[in-house]
Amino acid sequence: MNGDKYKVVITDNDFENTDIEEKVLSEINCEIIKAQAKNEEELLQVCSDADGLIVQYAPITEKVINHMTKCRVISRYGIGVDTIDLKAAKLKDIKVCNVPDYCIDEVADHCLALILGLARKVVKLSNSVRSEIWDTIGVGKPIFNLKVQTLGLVGFGKIPQNLYPKVRYIFNDILIYDPFIPEALIEQYSIKIASFYEILRSCDFISIHCPLNETTKYLFGKREFQLMKPTAYIINTSRGAIINTSELYQAIRNGLIAGAGLDVLEKEPPGMDFELSKFDNVIITPHAGFYSESALDDLKYKTALNVLKVLKGEEAINVVN
Ligand SMILES: NC(=O)c1ccc[n+]([C@@H]2O[C@H](COP(=O)([O-])OP(=O)(O)OC[C@H]3O[C@@H](n4cnc5c(N)ncnc54)[C@H](O)[C@@H]3O)[C@@H](O)[C@H]2O)c1
Question: Atom 21 of ligand 1 has which residue's CA nearest to it?
Answer without folding.
Answer: 157
